[in-house]
Amino acid sequence: MRALANAPVHPGDRIVYRKQKVSTHPSPHAYDVHPASQGDTYIYFIDKFWTVEKVLRDGRLLVTTRTHKHHYLSPDDPNLEKAGWFARLRHWRRFPRLSEETDAEV
Fold first, then answer.
1. pTM of the full predicted structure?
2. Domain annotation covers residue 40
3. Domain assignment of residue 36, yes or no
4. Can you give the chain as a three-state secondary structure string?
5. Among 35, 36, 38, 94, which residue is least crowded by beta carbons within 10 Å?
């Protein structure tokens, strides 16, 4: 994945965050799965589909998850990528909707 250093990001933009996880049972969406050095767990990545809620003055991004949790991300994080048209089309249900978007459609 590539960082968002060259792509302008605006509130409402969809992003894909590549998150590293460790567990005994990788999820069905896991990829790049490798056993841990001890052999009891697996290290893997999953894609998180988030929406940019706000771009802060210092450049950080306030993003919203599907469960309405918030995370602050640096735009130059190598695990962060702006969702392309194919990801937006294929995973449209997995991106959270901002409250303004929901209110505008009602």
1. 0.75
2. no
3. no
4. CCCCCCCCCCCCCEEEEEEEEEECCCCCCCEEEEECCCCCCEEEEEEEEEEEEEECCCCCEEEECCCCCEEEECCCCCCEEECCHHHHHHCHHHCCCCHHHHHHHC
5. 38
- Sign of dihedral through CA atoms 88, 93, 94, 97? positive
In a domain, 65, yes or no: yes
Instruction: Say if 55 falls within a structural domain.
Output: yes
pLDDT digits (tens, 9 = 90+) for 45-103: 999 989 889 999 999 999 998 888 999 999 999 999 887 776 776 766 667 777 655 44
